[in-house]
Amino acid sequence: MSNFEVRRAERRDLEILMEIERTQFPEPWTQGMMLDELDRTDSRRYTVCIDGEQVVGYLGVMFTDEGMHINTIGVVPGNERRGIAKTLMDECWADLVVRGVTKASLEVAVSNAPAIALYYAYGFAPVGIRKNYYQATGEDALVLVAEIPSTMAAG
Ligand SMILES: CC(C)(COP(=O)(O)OP(=O)(O)OC[C@H]1O[C@@H](n2cnc3c(N)ncnc32)[C@H](O)[C@@H]1OP(=O)(O)O)[C@@H](O)C(=O)NCCC(=O)NCCS
Q: Is the distance from the beta carbon of residue 78 to the nearest atom of ligand 1 less than 6 Å?
């Protein structure tokens, strides 16, 4: 069994978050964008998953009038399929229940099978396609939405 912990992301996590960005995403955010996201604690909720002392993954969500939007999720390369994303999503989902947030949405590249499988496991379903959504690859995005279960964390 893994011993993961989840805490709020802070500025001191910037270096590892940028490493995840650069290694896991074709269009990594800039450091400035990431800092801006971390600082906007009124509308954003960024968390990291800790294994021992190490940050091994992170999740960033944004709150809007419509509910919650997943901005980003990623794990340090080599740590896939250890349950890190699930740990982060479960912790976030429990918080959404407390906040009374009932709807979630996100965009995901149509070819990103691991992420799509993760999201489907949390009840997300496709509602549309955004053509050429990703500038670097020209790839389309699937738009997924989910209802948040009102009682307890999913998964
Ligand atoms: C997508 C990503 C965050 C998943 O993180 P992870 O920690 O490996 O996921 P978990 O181990 O918690 O898996 C949870 C569930 O997601 C699904 N899943 C995750 N990776 C999968 C894969 N490669 N193939 C099929 N299903 C997968 C499974 O349902 C899995 O449950 P299971 O292992 O009990 O079958 C990770 O692959 C990643 O960082 N990818 C690059 C960044 C990225 O694409 N982010 C999404 C942007 S929208």
A: no
